[in-house]
């Protein structure tokens, strides 16, 4: 006998890639469900998981410090945190993960929860100019807040989606001059249509925002700092601060050589949150959740969608974790009704469902003119989504009808319901990419 004792290697356990809302709630669910093995959480940022919705509201306004956005742990995790070291490659067959710096982690099961990144200005020269910002993470918000606090003479925002509109609202609250440029006919036109978006356009203008719909931006120009925005028609808009709000790209670059179905639109999963290989087969032990996941949503005919909403990150993170611990024959399908909220220009906007493909719009409570209403979207005679502007009391009832696929419009002769007014939704023509997929933009409640 040699007198030495061999020590068995530590089990690889479960690894979560993404110190995100979805990753955190997934980790908590693993522990709540009784998993007591090794748990490692990898994050590309040096921060513990934090909440993103306040970044475009309270942090920009100076009401909340960026480091005050950390998410609470709901249960003890006993996790090994690998922060500030992003994952750079994945080998699903060998069940290994390589981090920046060369560390290699083994895993028994893996949850991909890497989220999304802000889409940068496409011209690197313009994107590098001082005073040009995107807004997605904590560092983005801190940098933008510092520049806003200096009192820029003119702010230009490119993109009138949720982030662009919320940033415009915040800038006006700070008393800053703002021009908002967007190629579509109205704010949020791609997600809510031009009719509902037109209400937001009126709010923008009443708040003093110079909103210019149907406007294409050609270049961001300056010396070392941004000085102007050149439009496609040759016009110039002066700017000493630019917020680029062009949506998000899923954080999937590290999966390029993994053999998984992953691209800038997301990592594709089956209905159980299991990641698919290039041949369409589920990859054993690899799951995905949150903004990065693209999955077939049963309520909308099984079409692939990715959803950048707070509620989906929470629910899908938890659901994927439960399935990770379940036997292969006990996988549960993920059923989710997308929902988001946004606060801007003194209006609380809430929505449920997906509007893509809607051919009808009915205002069923309140009125567009009063900027206080609830509207339902229909497709082929079925209710598929609903949105409220300061009229959320009835929204849960309509959410139930949307989830049930009720006829359009789903509720008639309700208490205090006015005459139902129908409109064409006014969606812009679809762009030529992403056929067969649906995406909802903006991390919101």
Automatic annotation (TrEMBL):
Which is an annotated Pfam family here? Pyr_redox_2
**What is a GO molecular function of this protein?**
oxidoreductase activity, acting on NAD(P)H
The UniProt record lists the Reductase C-terminal domain at: 340-411
Q: Which cofactor does it need?
A: FAD
Q: Give the region (Disordered) as residue ranges.
A: 423-445
**One GO cellular component term noted in the UniProt record for this chain:** cytoplasm
Q: Provide ranges: composition bias, Gly residues.
A: 433-445
List keywords of the entry alphabetically.
FAD, Flavoprotein, Oxidoreductase
Q: Where is the signal peptide?
A: none
Could you tell me which residue ranges the FAD/NAD(P)-binding domain spans?
A: 14-317
PANTHER family linked to this entry: APOPTOSIS-INDUCING FACTOR 1, RIESKE DOMAIN-CONTAINING PROTEIN-RELATED
Q: What is this protein called?
A: NADPH-dependent 2,4-dienoyl-CoA reductase/sulfur reductase-like enzyme
């Amino acid at each position: 006998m040699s007198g030495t004792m061999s020590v068995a290697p530590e089990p690889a356990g479960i690894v979560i890639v993404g110190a995100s809302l979805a990753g955190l709630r997934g980790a908590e669910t693993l522990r709540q469900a009784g998993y007591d093995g090794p748990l490692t959480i990898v994050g590309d940022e040096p921060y513990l998981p934090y909440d993103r919705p306040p970044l475009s509201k309270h942090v920009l306004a100076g009401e909340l410090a960026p480091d005050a956005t950390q998410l609470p742990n709901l249960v003890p995790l006993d996790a090994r945190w690998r922060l500030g070291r992003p994952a750079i490659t994945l080998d699903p067959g060998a069940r290994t993960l390589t981090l920046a710096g060369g560390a290699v982690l083994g895993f028994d099961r893996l949850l991909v929860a890497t989220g999304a990144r802000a889409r940068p200005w496409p011209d690197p020269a313009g994107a590098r100019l001082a005073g040009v910002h995107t807004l997605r993470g904590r560092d983005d918000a801190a940098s933008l807040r510092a520049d806003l606090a200096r009192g820029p003479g003119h702010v230009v925002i490119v993109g009138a989606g949720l982030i662009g509109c919320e940033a415009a609202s915040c800038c006006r609250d700070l008393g800053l001059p703002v021009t908002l440029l967007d190629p579509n006919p109205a704010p949020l036109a791609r997600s809510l249509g031009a009719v509902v978006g037109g209400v937001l356009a009126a709010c923008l203008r009443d708040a003093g925002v110079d909103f210019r719909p149907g406007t294409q931006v050609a270049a961001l120009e300056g010396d070392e700092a941004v000085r102007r925005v050149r439009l496609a028609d040759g016009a110039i808009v002066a700017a000493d601060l630019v917020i680029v709000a062009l949506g998000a790209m899923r954080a999937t670059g590290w999966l390029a050589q993994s053999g998984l179905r992953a691209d800038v639109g997301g990592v594709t999963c089956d209905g159980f949150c299991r990641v698919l290989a290039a041949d369409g087969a589920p990859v054993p032990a690899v799951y995905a959740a949150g903004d990065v996941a693209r999955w077939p949503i049963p309520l909308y005919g099984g079409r692939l969608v990715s959803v950048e909403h707070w509620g989906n990150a929470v629910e899908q993170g938890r659901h994927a974790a439960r399935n990770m611990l379940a036997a292969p024959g006990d996988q549960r399908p993920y059923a989710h009704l997308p929902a988001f909220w946004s606060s801007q220009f003194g209006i609380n906007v809430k929505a449920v469902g997906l509007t893509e493909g809607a051919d009808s719009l009915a205002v069923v409570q309140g009125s567009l003119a009063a900027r206080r209403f609830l509207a339902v979207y229909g497709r082929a005679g079925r209710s598929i989504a609903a949105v409220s502007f300061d009229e959320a009391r009835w929204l849960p009832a309509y959410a139930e009808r949307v989830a049930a696929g009720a006829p359009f419009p789903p509720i008639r002769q309700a208490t205090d319901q006015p005459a139902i007014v129908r409109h064409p939704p006014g969606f812009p023509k679809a762009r030529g990419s992403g056929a067969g997929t649906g995406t909802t933009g903006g991390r919101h409640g």
